[in-house]
Amino acid sequence: MFPTGIIDLHCDTLTRDMWASQPPACGPLVNPAYHIALGKMPRNLRWVQCFAIFVPDNYRGQDAIDFFDRYRAVFDRQMVAHGDKVSPCRSFSDMEQALEAGKFAAVLTVEGGAALAGQPERAQVLRDAGVRMLTLTWNGPNELGSGHDSSAGLTACGREAVAELERCGVLVDVSHLNDRGFEDLLSVAKKPFVASHSNARSVCGHRRNLPDAFIREIADRGGLIGLNYSKDFLSDSGRGNLDDLYRHVCRFLELDAGACLALGSDFDGTDIHPDLDSVEKSLSIYGYLTQHGIPADTADGILFGNAWRFFKAWL
């Protein structure tokens, strides 16, 4: 048996080349060295991928705007160059049409609220550019708040930005946000929000992962959480294989949070065990879960159905 498809809430494929000493000649969606490459995709796969523009912590103001614009242009060019295989999606109906046409569906997102340049009203600019989800912070502080490497909560600008993102229809993403910032968000958020690539802290103690209380809060609010494949966030030992991912799934199910669970691989942005280091291996999660006693409909929900229903309601 196979899952309905795969929906992956986060990858860094678009900006992976920023770390290269010399940018590769090919575009990021066809680089065979990357976790995600169109030439390596399984045939006949129904695949929806959220492609993040990762804005590093050291970018501020116009530099952050310019950085976003540069990689938004990369995304646009890749969509045109490979339009026979992948389609950019700004709505749920776009996703439906892409999959019905036998194409992969690509959703543009941003990792790092510095892309707003301290101007909450820029949420509409990002929306108009096709962005449908924004991670408020990365590891450190920015104008909106602080990531897990620092302790400050949401700023006044951050609170205003959350309201503006919700107003214009950009999903709020709390992955990387520290505990104080998460608690601040609870008093501001009016709509369901996402943790696009975060695991259970009670299984792996890294601060990037979510405490049980936060998982329950996201589930109770009808939100969505994507399982991160990073070795560091799957296991305290740093192993991070399929067995470790299964332990996180079991914890979410114990917390009655199975309906909010999805995939958030962090492909091309982290160190991933060979068990999980390609889209094809993401498909293997379905068989592993069902072979270990997870009901088929629950496993299919994690790989596809839960995020599909969420996007139908909120994208």
Topology:
Layout: E1 6-11, E2 47-54, H1 61-81, E3 86-88, H2 92-100, E4 104-111, H3 122-128, E5 131-135, H4 156-168, E6 171-173, H5 179-186, E7 194-195, H6 212-220, E8 224-227, H7 231-234, H8 242-254, E9 261-263, H9 279-291, H10 296-314
Parallel strand pairs: 1-2, 2-4, 3-4, 4-5, 5-6, 7-8, 8-9
Helix pairs in contact: 9-10
Describe this structure in words.
The protein is of the alpha/beta class and 315 residues long. Helices cover 37% and strands 13% of the residues. It is built from 10 helices and 9 strands. It has helices at residues 61-81, 92-100, 122-128, 156-168, 179-186, 212-220, 231-234, 242-254, 279-291, 296-314, and strands at residues 6-11, 47-54, 86-88, 104-111, 131-135, 171-173, 194-195, 224-227, 261-263. The strands form 2 sheets. Strands 1, 2, 3, 4, 5 and 6 form a 6-stranded parallel beta sheet that branches. A 3-stranded parallel beta sheet has the order 7-8-9. Helix 3 links the parallel strand 4 (104-111) and strand 5. The model has no long low-confidence stretch (mean pLDDT 96).
